[in-house]
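Sharing a chain and its predicted structure for anyone who wants a worked example. Both blocks are below, sequence first, tokens second.
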Amino acid sequence: MIGWLVINFVTARHKHLNRGFLFILFFYHSALAITYYLYAVFNPSDSHLYYKIVSEKLGGVLWSDYFGAGTDFVEFLLYPFVHFFGFTYESSMIVFAFFGFLGFIYFYIFFKERIQARPLIFGLDGVSVIFLLPNLHFWSASLGKGSVIFLAFGLFFYSLNSPLKRIFAFLIGGWMMYEIRSHIFFVVLIGIAVGYSFSVKGVSITLRAAILTIAGVLLMIIYDDILRLTGFEDESVFDPLVSHRASELTKATSGIDITSYSIPEKLFAFCFRPLFFDAPGALGFIVSFENLLYLYLFIRILFPTHLKNLLLGDPIMKTCFFTFLGVSLALSQITGNLGLAMRQKSQVMILMMFVILKLLDIDKLSELKKEALKRGKFKKLKQRLEVAKA
């Protein structure tokens, strides 16, 4: 019922949204939430640990005892549902799955506001295809960091379309992102700074200076906290720590040794593996189809015209691209476990899909303009012939 009310409210405010598709998205996300729950019943899942810590008050007696960064923030969000409303583990899973669905709503608005010409993938609406990819839903439909940070990303990028009018979404999304993964928020701020710095289209010098100043101030404010939270206070220990972390992750059953990989190889493994031949179990085999689609779409944009459009693109598209690139570079250095890669990349892969759809959108708009120009010339020629005939 709450989902129905949310969809009606959103479509009333944003007339360009497809109400029917949002209901399909809701039931699809719910189905993947049930799938994850069944997966968690028979496999180890952090969701059980989150609920156990909060329900048994292992982290403290008061709600305020749970406030903190990372996993503590998930427990902080869970606490009132468990102790004020008496939610069970299953009820808590539903609430956090709904957080993930809200993330999809905000991302859907973001996509629809920026993409105009309805680009197609295999003859189908590109936006609909991307939003129905199962891996995005599976890891954002459970009790844990995935659903919360996906909502944070959705809020944050939704706000970038109109930052002054959506300042509340900007602040809430940024705060949640910072609390869940402070280093990711750090990369997002860098992505905004770089995206606006290298954009000319639609960006005045004043706006560019303001954006860079705000991003710079935020980076200085949170820099010390990020070093403290990630344990990288001594920069000299960064490389050994990353190497150790990567080595530890390869010990899992779905691990691959990335410590000897080059940076391009690590990026490829993070973004496009598993690919059938190295799929870790049934879940990995299913995800391989999705990775194959990612690889196909990525190859499609490696043409000079697309690279030129990316270079000349608007600041939002560049922000999404640099954020995706920065987060992928950071996570690929320590992700030696394919299962972990499948989960972590779902947070940012949707940003790259936006960039790809936006480039396809630019192509289609260009084709429509050419067709309109041809029709206009044909119409004028026909009028001249009719005059001459008369």
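Comments welcome. Residues 1-179 form one domain.
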